[in-house]
């Protein structure tokens, strides 16, 4: 009978041990499920962040292109201003030359008028 009691005791201990192991396995499987969910969530987060990075990169490139375009525009305007300034200087020189020429013509005309008056006086 003693052997049967020992055997029963051993069976009970083994059943208890098996139950503990089953509980431990169930806990580990639950933890594995949680970890797998965390991995899935992190993968989704990574995909979302990659999408944001792609969007931000595209936006940065657009902004860089706008800056390049504006710099090019500013350079073209600077060039136009330089051209217009040079043209203005040429026009000012031309106006000065024309004023000088007009003054010469007026002086010449005044001389002619004076000579005409002298001739008119001589004729009279």
TrEMBL record:
Q: Which stretches of sequence are listed as region Disordered? A: 65-85
* SUPFAM superfamilies on file: Myosin rod fragments (SSF90257)
Q: What protein name does the entry list? A: Uncharacterized protein
Write down the species: Eutreptiella gymnastica
